[in-house]
Amino acid sequence: MDSRERVRQALDHKEADRVPFDLGGTGLTTIHVDGYRRLRDYLGLPPVQVQIMAQAEQLAVVDEDVARRLDTDVRLLLPGLAHGFEYVVRAEGEYDAYTDEWGIGWRKPQVGGFYYDMYRHPLSGAQSLSDVKAHHFPDPLDPGRFATLREQAEAARAKGKATALAGPCAGVLEVYSWMRGYEGFYIDLAANQEMVGYALDQMVDFKCAYWEKALAELDGLVDVVIEADDMAGQQSLLLSPRTYRKLIKPRHHRLFDFIKAQAPVRVFFHSCGAVVPLIPDLIEAGVDILNPVQKSATGMDLTSLKREFGRDLVFWGGGVDTQRVLGDGTPEEVRQDVKANVEALAPGGGFVFAAIHDIQPNVPPENVMAMWEAWREFGAY
Q1: Is omega for the bond preceding 347 within 30 degrees of 0, making it cis?
Q2: CA end-to-end span of the chain, whole Å?
Q3: What is the pLDDT of residues 31-79, one digit of tens each?
Q4: Alpha carbon distance 33, 36 (integer Å)
Q5: pLDDT tens digits for 231-250?
Q6: What is the mean pLDDT of residues 346-373?
Q7: What distance lies between CA 267 and its chain's CA centroid?
Q8: For the chain, what are the domain ranges?
Q9: Minimal CA–CA distance to 277: which of 249, 250, 251?
Q10: Class of the 3-85+122-378 domain?
């Protein structure tokens, strides 16, 4: 059984020879560049020029030698940048800063900084719908986004790997909130829903154009498409279920239906935190796969999630608690956490092992390997 067969068995809620393993197969299941360099050194692999897949989060593209060493089952298909756009990092006082193609400003402390945070929001001063309509959206069909996708997909398929295709940007809700700024965004949800609806429709149109072209060019070579919208915090949702059902769910439904009409793919959806009150809605909207399965958040007990939603959802993540165990625990504590999580999520298939969100820079390579070794020990069916 090759990796693609193994993953497809999991996606069909069937038990394969073992639970599939993912590190670097999506931008939500990879590793910070600092941790990645330490992991390569720990594995005795040569230094490389690490490719960054997500500028703000400083996430590494996992190289093929690491993927082979860890026997990962999924390969990420990563769109390129639009022609004429590049990340130009400039110095601004004590920060390194850049502006993305949406006009959002990001900066990272030059000393001791691990990530870029937003600090400029191009729609923060918008007063009316006409102000949003006047904002320039990037071109979803820019040829630069598609230039190497087929080459990546064919290489993955030649290795017998499952493929996960990334989108051109973050989620429809996320990108609008970033352009608007959080204060204005949450006010809009209550007081300016027409503007929110228009902006979300524009985002869905942008994504649909991208997915239509990408899936046509990768005809038959994609297993999973990746979407995301963070809608929960540690203890509760970031917006009410009523607001989700009125403003966002119809847009998610339209987007996911459109994607599935283009190709026989599964929709991977990422939302951190205590998202359990929205899980039935996400299933109705067309989500097939939930990530990161944040067990440390309120209500996100893995055994309960598997019992209540395991017939409808594949859990991709949930393998080890990055918040409380992977970074600060001992290798034995990591092993025990992995054991408990696999026992909760693996029965009957419907589980792809990955850390709960990206592995952070504080995680020692010994713990990464303890996670991997525990997956090998407990992940066999």
Answers
A1: no
A2: 13
A3: 999 999 999 999 999 999 999 999 999 999 999 999 999 999 999 999 9
A4: 5
A5: 999 999 999 999 999 999 99
A6: 98
A7: 11
A8: 3-85+122-378
A9: 249
A10: alpha beta
